[in-house]
Records
---
Amino acid sequence: MEKIGIIDLGSNSARLVIVNLFEDGYFMVVDELKESVRLGQDMERDGFLKPQRVAETIKTLKMFRKLCDASGVNRIITVATEAVRKAKNQRSFLDEIQANCGIKIKVLSPEEEATYVYRGVINTMDIPKGIILEIGGGSTKIVYYNRRNMLNYVTLPFGAVTLTDMFGSDGLKPEEQANKIEEFFTEQLKGIDWLSEVDPDVHMIGVGGSFRNLFKINKMVHKYPLDTVHNYNMLTEDFLPLYDMIKVLDLDKKKKIKGLSAERADILPAALAIIKSFTSYMAMECFTISGAGLREGIMFNQALPSTIEKPVSDVLTYSLTTLVKWYDCDEKHVEHVVNLSIQLFKQLRVLHKFPRQYLKVLKVAATLHDCGMRIKFYNHQRHSWYMILNATLYGVSHREIILAAFVACCHKKEDINPADWARFKDILREEDLEIVKKLGVMLRIAESLDRSMSGTIKGINCDILGDSVIMKTEVEGDAALEIRDAMASGSEFKKAFHKNLEIL
């Protein structure tokens, strides 16, 4: 296993992520460090990186280098974006970093940066057609893709830091400053011809630290029960009151907003003005926030070079396989339980009548049902519940993650804590409790049918006859243990499906 460090040197912040690369194309982030360096600040006047900012960057990169060395990092990949890209003193800056930190920086072109952002999104989100708005400190990227192919992109040479600098020195009140940025950004959008060709039903995806801060603020306001930013959906009508509230505040009051990073308080209104302008211009009723972007694009390219040519075909399966490897689950047992769960779902469809989307929920729960054993065997279903709720899961909605966590929690017994369920009342639906119980019974039976973890039962065929379900097993070897264990779920099966269970 190789360990790499990825340093993203942006106009606002510098961020290091340390990543374990598995041998077979998977990866996991194991450490992170972020510093606000404001490298792009005050560049608008003469186009030069300022000595104070350069000194702060060198200090930060030395810290990053020390952490990489202490963590056993094999190699460091460092990229720089808009501030360094347009700096008149770029060459001397790069040489100074090399001499002082021993770090070689690759300055990304606008196309390379947009492509990395796109790859970070397309390999972690199951959204086949989207328009990405990525707000950085010194630039804003807009990327349009359809059928998982990148069609158009543009990099506008201003972001949250540069726009704050541009409109912050005119003595304007905070609200007037935000309105000026809105007007300015809208004029830039009017100059992008291909935006008029974007499909009206395209899905907007927000990328960058400002979007992540927006999630944190909205989470506080609405008491949202999950900490997961990736795949968080936000209605424009919920965004607008937050924007109207924040844009009128002075800096001291903005710093007191719960969920807002103090180091981002001064530049967030500019970022929100960009979002307001874009959602209005493109008539977006909602947007989804991505927790993955440029750095994840680099990670995928390093771990799975094939993604340079073609994105991951099944985002969810890739994500689940990563977690199975990371949690050191028994891969053959996991695969067998997933297959048996899917067979049960399909063969009992006449009873449960669930649409296909719930097969995804069952797949997540079946794949990760035993991950809680990494903490403790006893009551590990409760640990699995917590771990699924907090895992890095791609290709599923927040509601599907919550449902899968509760289904996994039922794989030993019906173990739904009413207080836990009540936490998610604003996300779950009235009928979801019954759905979870039925899927939980299916998972419990599927796991029982591989109780010895030997793959003895190869398949099942269910016949529904009167008040009974006759489950015929396809067996290689002695399956007495498996059948006995599965029959222990008979009472729960009857409670869920109103049928007696017989296993042959």
---
Amino acid sequence: MKSRIERIGVVVAMEKELLPFLKGKEYELRKINAYDVYVTSISGKTLYMVKLPTVGEICAAAATQLLITAFDVQLILNFGVVGALTEKGALLSTMLVESVVHYDMDTSVMDNCPVGRYMIFDDVAIPTDKDLIDIALSVQQLSVVRCASADKFVEGREAKSRLHNLFGADICDMESAGIVITAKLNNVKVLMVKAVSDSLCGDGTEYEQNLDKAAQEYVGFVQKLLNKLN
């Protein structure tokens, strides 16, 4: 018998990505060293929502481990904003991530391993949880995409198209690799919901202009998804 999902860990990079979700809800703020953990209840589930002290893969991985170790969460939910690498990623559109490529991982000069590949995983692309994606798609039909992730803000058509051509990715961010790898190593399921804040030709200015709007796009969907989870 599958255990009922009662404790969900949520990882977000920035306060702007978190505040739309907390609006109108009662919550408790717990401070664990540099990490702020917001605890709230939705649909009979307890959510432990951590905001990173700074952006990037390392803090994202540490935050994921914190939620797993300190609160024994049964799954990790990550939502936030991303950049589009193709025309498929329309501005402000919401997407589900089916796999993540950590494109900064490169040991190829030593072992001839493909760029982005961790040998503990079967492929360069590290999958999220298919069952959770199926549940999410039953809530709303969204595009299912691959995310290229590393500690770099990517802007401009040339740089974005290069990532797409090399790794088959449709979006990019700076946290997903740390989150999915940590969750996998702990045998915890992970689901990622992303909203596009800057388009294929977009830059940092477009990102800043659309960050708040993009963050609000996934709020309603995530709330419906939580109602659907057993």
---
Amino acid sequence: MNLIELFLLAVGLSMDAFAVSICLGLNMEKYSKRKSLIVGLYFGVFQAVMPLIGFKAATLFAVRIVAYDHWIAFALLCFLGGKMIIGSLKRENGENCGCREASLKPAQMLPLALATSIDALAVGISLAFLRVSIIPAAFFIGITTLVISILGVKTGSVFGSKFSSKAELAGGVILVLIGIKILLEHLNIIG
């Protein structure tokens, strides 16, 4: 996986966190850089740790399924991307984005950070099958999510929630396209 693919993967993974960050920014009484940084750190740390957990879990049983690894990576990325696309379309059709009054207390932020990083766990499994160097990849994913989440809080405080569904849609499409690319490479359809 090259740097551009890793960047696109990181951006795709961070779109859930971006959408939630917009909601949090929208519901903050007053925007501050400190609040943005706190949100970014929650989401960034979880997005960095979850691929490590997935990677470690996959390496424990990778020997048994190496012949099918590209299919597993393809299925996981397409499933996650599809889920994000469907969620964005539901939100676009007027369903609530699940935003509450913004609180940065661990009781609210930990579940949000966990919920937005579950897909990163599955991606960690995929990265194990692709034999990616996980520490730099996880760090890159975490930093990307941190920056995008900070931007999401600012965006929410300025523009409101009308962009959150489009961001999630873009993230879903990116994950599906990466999954298709992985499958096509392993089937030797593209180089």
---
Amino acid sequence: MFADRARIFVRSGKGGDGHVSFRHEKFVPAGGPDGGDGGRGGDVRFVVDEGLNTLIDYRNTRKYKAGDGEPGGKKNCRGKDGKDITLKVPPGTVIREAQSGQVIMDMSGDNREFVILKGGRGGSGNQHYATSTMQAPMYAQPGKPAKELELLLELKVIADVGLVGLPNVGKSTFLARVTNARPKIANYHFTTLNPNLGVVDLDGGKGFVIADIPGLIEGASEGVGLGHEFLRHIERTKVIIHIVDAAGTEGRDPLEDIRTINQELAAYNPDIAKRPQVIAANKIDAIYDRETSALAAIKAEFEPKGIAVFPISAVSGEGVRELLYHVSGMLEEIGNETTVFESEYRPEEHAVNTDEPYTVNYDQENDEYVVEGPGVEKMLGYTNLDSEKGFSFFQRFLKTSGILDELEKLGIKDGDTVRLYGHSFDYYK
């Protein structure tokens, strides 16, 4: 099964906590602090793997977590860093924040590797807090928390040329004739269920990558049929080959067919509808009088608009060579730069701390504000509040963690009481 979308969770590693310890050696009765630093948490990174062409692996496994850093130890031993995790994706994968849909990174062009979440920094051991006045600090720094994001991975194939047209107009037959692709060909409503890619090689001309975009019918841009699932694959193409059944073998009007597809492209993305287009009037081997057929009407309507019309037969090959060289010339004029979607979302500004660090509530019965949470409790366990430096460290924690902001939102005033796990303080701004 072709998989071009996946929803996953990623989590970086938590930084290891700093350690509190003191030297205890023979003949050194008052050894100084020797608590080691915690290790760095692991990063989450994406890399492009040219050997991949689907996102099927991410349909089976949804959660990915980097390793946590180990806590520091005695004798200034630093904790081991957490293991990074590398997620491989096919070229053309767009990484989005799942809730907003905003682009984080487009793994195309020069974007081959990307660190999406950095691991938490390891906490400093108590050896760093010794001063001339505080020679035995009883506190160390906790490791920075992990971060997590919910992501939407979306594969938009990288092709120079996109084939569009209603079902059964001969797109798959055309692709099979001009490239090394071998699409399944049959006569039913959705001939192609996967975007088929092929490489066109031209003698004396520059080759290009061509993609058969499946599922286009009336209403495709609104999700009818499979159209909405596959229209994204045309967003990178520079030129559109619009294939139409010029013979009307299924009783449809070729002109109406062209208008229908162009309306669907414009409804999905107006920029796509404005891209250079060439019309391949297919199945001319089934037309007996080309001067009075729909082929003449197609030329009369679109050639004055600057859209070239090429009568072709995908079955016999008639007219195909001329069409391909014309498209190659169009691509030469446009240039070879891959369309890369700009980043709209910065994970480091929005990623969620996975350690729920605190809750702030007002206790009406006791007329005091209560701050609780594993992050707060851990910080108090490492901090000597009786020392000036320890209390200063505690105040910085309240500010940088956002606790002071939350207290102010609840309406705290100077002189009000704040309680944290058995410790009570008077609040002064």
